[in-house]
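Throughout this chapter, every protein is written as a compact record of paired, labelled lines. An example of such a record is reproduced below:
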Amino acid sequence: MKGIRGERLAGEFQKEIYNVISGKLRSEFPELSKVISVTEVDVAPDLKSARVYISIFDTDKERGEVSFNIIKENAGLIRYELSQVMRLRTVPELRFIKDGSMEYGEKIDKILSDLDKNEK
């Protein structure tokens, strides 16, 4: 969603979705990974749907996948909690997408540190 209103709404959605995941969802599912970030929210212009980009950093890849699946399966709960907090006529349907930017950054850091070791 373009424009000042769209950017502001996307920022509010990002903040509130993170609060729901780190609060209510974590209390119901203590097996969630410790580091979960909502990296971006892209809201459709008609406010019917939103793509939510989630980044999960966990040393155990399987636990990271389980955490992402828990979040996807509880999209309805997260949407309901958003409707309780945000004053909107409709809360968009949430589609969660895995964002691999943290893993990509870790991979680049490892390559750079290996190159630095080889030069010495």
Q: What stands out?
A: The longest helix spans residues 3-28. The beta strands are 35-43, 49-57, 93-98. The longest strand covers residues 35-43. Residues 28 and 85 are 19 Å apart (CA to CA).
